[in-house]
Amino acid sequence: MTEHDHPAYLQSVRAEHTEPIFIPRHMIGRAEWDRAGGEDYLRLGRIFPDLQPGLGAALAHPHVVFVGEPGMGETWLAHASMLPFAEAGHLPIFAGLSGYRAELDSFLTSAAGLAHTVTSVEGKPVRKAYIFDGLDEIPDAHVHEFLSELDGVLSREPDASAVLTCRQAKYEAHWHEVPPTFR
Asked: Which fold has domain 5-182?
C-alpha cells in the first residue's frame, strides 16, 4: 500500500461505514461473562450513568466483544467502530461473518481485498483494526475453527485491535472459546 493508497482507503472506510443516524450507546463492561444481571439494567436505566462507557472508551481496549440481544445494534456498533480506527490512522478491516466457513485469511481477502495483508505504508508499520461482525452467524460447526484462527491472527499481530460482535445466546455457548485477550 502506498502513501497515496492509505488515505484513499481510509476515505472509503469513512464513506462506507458512516451511518446517517447513529444513536450513541452506553456499554456494560465485564471482565467475566455471566449474562446481563439486574444491576446492569439499573445502569442501563441511567441510575449510574458515570459507569456506562461509550464506544470510544470501549475501543480503548485492544480486543472488545459487543454482545447483545437481537436488535440491540451490534452491527451498527461494528460499523461505527471502523470510524475511530480510521481517524487514528489505523487500517480498519471489516468482515461480516455470515459467510465464514473456514480459512480466515482467505475469508479476509474476500471481505476486505488485500488490505489485510498490508504490513506497512511507505516503510512505516501500519496498525490494523479487525472488525468481525456476527459470530452468531457462523454455523456452530465452524465457530471453534474461527476463534482458533482469530487467536492465531492476533498472536501474529500483537499490535492489532479487534472487535467482535455476537448475540447473547450464542456468546453464552461459546465465550470460553473466545481468545483470552478479549476477556
From this structure: Rossmann fold (3.40.50)
Gap between the terminal Cα atoms of the chain:
33
pTM of the model: 0.81
In terms of DSSP H, where are the helices of the chain?
A: 5-17, 38-44, 55-59, 74-87, 104-112, 140-156, 168-174
Length of the chain: 183
User: Grid coordinates in use for 128?
Assistant: 490494523
Half-sphere exposure at residue 28, Cβ-oriented, CA atoms within 13 angstroms: 20
What is the C-alpha separation between 99 and 101, in angstroms, rounded?
6
Instruction: Write the CA distances from 116 to 23, 36, 131, 176, integer angstroms.
Output: 29, 34, 11, 27
Q: Where are the domains of the chain?
A: 5-182
pLDDT at 126 over 80: yes
